[in-house]
């Protein structure tokens, strides 16, 4: 592993896995299973193992976006992986894309988008959330995502930069749809995440009114299976409603 790289340490305890995020540095990492000398991680490849001073063995793993979703420090509700999948697939996000995104929040969507796209510029209006998001992105090892403090509506209103996709997860998204149009390249996608159906409808109508085509709104349902000796069936605890996704193409 490289200096300053984030590492996922995974260990097994009583038939369960425990996971921790740490950084390759000269410092010690402390947990209930003992002390891990993170300096030793420099000589270990991802997939290798390291042992704490109490003899507990940990797998050394390079974290992926779902690990950051589970373990990153949150400032609010991050977008769920099921919705991220819809955004990436329906808008065709790819490695040549420049993406404008807001609000950054905990930076979870920015991490997923940064793992796929060429460049992501993410705006967060709350200064106190920006530092946490930057720390999460740095832990994710992404240098192609820039978090800026500011109002995305002002940025889009200026219309001085152009993007392949704009992804909005902000409160008053319907009012900002018309400005998004002037910051998108022809053929680019606007994606808006709306927790409420009234907001989704307003976004849809604004997008049609602003001249976008191929406007459609969807909700993605996810149902996990519970597997046991007795039988396999949908898990009683499941992800309920999260939000609606509106896609509009310039
Ligand atoms: C639900 S959170 C976004 C979560 C994020 N998608 C994630 O996956 O972590 C919404 C965020 O948008 C920010 N926000 C609201 N209006 C904004 C605006 N006009 N420009 C930039 N950020 C905004 C809020 O401060 C909040 O942190």
What does this 3D model show about the protein?
InterPro entries: SAM-dependent_MTases_sf, TRM61_C, tRNA_MeTrfase_Gcd14. It comes from Methanohalophilus mahii (strain ATCC 35705 / DSM 5219 / SLP). GO terms for molecular function: tRNA (adenine(58)-N1)-methyltransferase activity. One of its GO terms (cellular component) is tRNA (m1A) methyltransferase complex. This is tRNA methyltransferase complex GCD14 subunit. By secondary structure, this protein is of the alpha/beta class. The chain is built from 7 helices and 15 strands. It is 28% helix and 33% strand. α1 runs antiparallel to α3 and α6 runs parallel beside α7. It has 2 domains: 56 residues, Vcp-like ATPase, Chain A, domain 2 (Roll); 183 residues, Vaccinia Virus protein VP39 (Rossmann fold, 3-Layer(aba) Sandwich). The chain has a 7-stranded mixed β-sheet with strand order 9-8-7-10-11-15-12, sandwiched between helices. The protein binds S-adenosylmethionine (SAM). The site of S-adenosylmethionine (SAM) has 22 residues, from α3, β8 and α5.
Summary tags:
250 residues, alpha/beta, Vcp-like ATPase, Chain A, domain 2, Rossmann fold, seven-stranded mixed β-sheet, 7 helices, 15 strands, 28% helix, binds S-adenosylmethionine, methyltransferase
* Count of discrete domains: 2
Task: Outline the biggest β-sheet.
Answer: 7 strands, mixed
- The amount of beta strand, in percent, is 25-35%
Tell me the name of the CATH class of the largest domain: Alpha Beta
Bound molecules: S-adenosylmethionine
Output the radius of gyration.
Answer: 21 Å
H/I helix tally = 7
């Amino acid at each position: 592993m490289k200096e300053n790289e984030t590492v996922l340490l995974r260990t097994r305890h009583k038939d369960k896995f425990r996971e921790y995020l740490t950084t390759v540095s000269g410092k010690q990492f402390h947990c209930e299973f003992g002390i891990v000398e993170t300096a030793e991680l420099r000589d270990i490849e991802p997939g290798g193992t390291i042992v704490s001073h109490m003899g507990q063995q940990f797998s050394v793993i390079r974290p992926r976006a779902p690990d950051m979703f589970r373990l990153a420090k949150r400032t609010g509700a991050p977008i769920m992986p099921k919705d991220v999948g819809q955004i990436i697939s329906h808008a065709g996000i790819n490695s040549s894309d420049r993406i404008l995104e807001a609000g950054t929040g905990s930076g979870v969507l920015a991490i997923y988008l940064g793992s796929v796209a060429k460049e992501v510029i993410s705006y967060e209006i709350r200064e106190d959330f920006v530092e946490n998001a930057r720390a999460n992105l740095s832990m994710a090892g992404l240098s192609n995502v820039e978090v800026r403090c500011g109002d995305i509506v002002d940025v889009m209103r200026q219309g001085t930069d152009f993007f392949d996709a704009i992804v909005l997860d902000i409160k008053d998204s319907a009012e900002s749809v018309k400005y998004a149009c002037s910051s998108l390249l022809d053929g680019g996608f606007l994606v808006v995440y709306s927790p409420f159906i009234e907001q989704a409808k307003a976004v849809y109508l604004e997008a049609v009114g602003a001249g976008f085509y191929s406007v459609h709104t969807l909700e993605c349902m996810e149902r996990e299976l519970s597997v046991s000796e007795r039988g396999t069936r949908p898990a009683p605890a499941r992800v309920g409603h999260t939000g609606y996704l509106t896609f509009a193409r310039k």
